[in-house]
Amino acid sequence: xxxxxxxxxxxxxxxxxxxxxxxxxxxxxxxxxxxxxxxxxxxxxxxxxxxxxxxxxxxxxxxxxxxxxxxxxxxxxxxxxxxxxxxxxxxxxxxxxxxxxxxxxxxxxxxxxxxxxxxxxxxxxxxxxxxxxxxxxxxxxxxxxxxxxxxxxxxxxxxxxxxxxxxxxxxxxxxxxxxxxxxxxxxxxxxxxxxxxxxxxxxxxxxxxxxxxxxxxxxxxxxxxxxxxxxxxxxxxxxxxxxxxxxxxxxxxxxxxxxxxxxxxxxxxxxxxxxxxxxxxxxxxxxxxxxxxxxxxxxxxxxxxxxxxxxxxxxxxxxxxxxxxxxxxxxx
Length: 332
Fold this sequence. Notes:
It comes from Nonomuraea maritima. It holds the Pfam family Haem_oxygenas_2. This is Iron-containing redox enzyme. This protein folds into 2 domains: 9-89; 98-319, Heme Oxygenase, Chain A, CATH 1.20.910. It is 64% helix and 0% strand. It has helices at residues 9-18, 28-33, 40-52, 69-89, 101-111, 117-123, 127-141, 146-149, 157-170, 180-190, 206-219, 225-237, 240-252, 257-288, 293-319. The chain is globular, with a radius of gyration of 19 Å. It starts with 8 loop residues before the first helix and ends in a 13-residue tail after the last helix. The mean pLDDT is 94.
């Protein structure tokens, strides 16, 4: 993956600097651009690029940038912007008694109906809709589980064991062909899409990047470990039904079983993960750290709200007969 085209003054300055060695050019221009009004496209792409240096990185960016102090200072400023945005769109979540965390998570997830995107894909979508949907999802699913894995060394005891159990399934139990990211690659190839990592970064909008960025924000900061667990719990608790619908929609269109397997796998795995995440992971973590129960619920609420906003974006475009992706541009 290479750096994508810039989307505003922040990414224009940031990417121009990242193309050189650390320390060669100051990041003053990118820092100065932060004084402008919040721009979701520019801010989310800049933050995603900073986070990506902790994952697979960019072919045209020196790996030494990952821990460059000046870049970390810029990233901290971007994170503060993002945290203010989250605080504005996600209501503050009050703490509850640790014994009530599971019930509170159930209440949050059951109250979240969201736009009927999965029903559209099940009943009405054509192959172009599915290709577009999968393109959006590739930003996360090609590194599925990685953001939540940051929590493993920050936990101990029962919550750690529960998270490892979930992540082991996500990584295919040690078998590459069963890794969820590899199953998703099969889905992409079966739909005629490029399955290389980050191939569509230049096409997905800021609302899609925010879905991934919130996981990295929570994952890379120990202070947000409770929110990261709540985020994962919300994903697991709201996954089985939509994935069943995606699988049904693909079968309706005559797609072969191997291409659908990614969604079938999530119907089965996430039904079990739901119980582990809510009870053994979040419940046990809340019992050990009762002061973090509000963070657990906030992380879940952020997951649900950003997913809702993304689905509204996609479905709104489809209802209007327009493309929910950014215009086609050749990456720099």
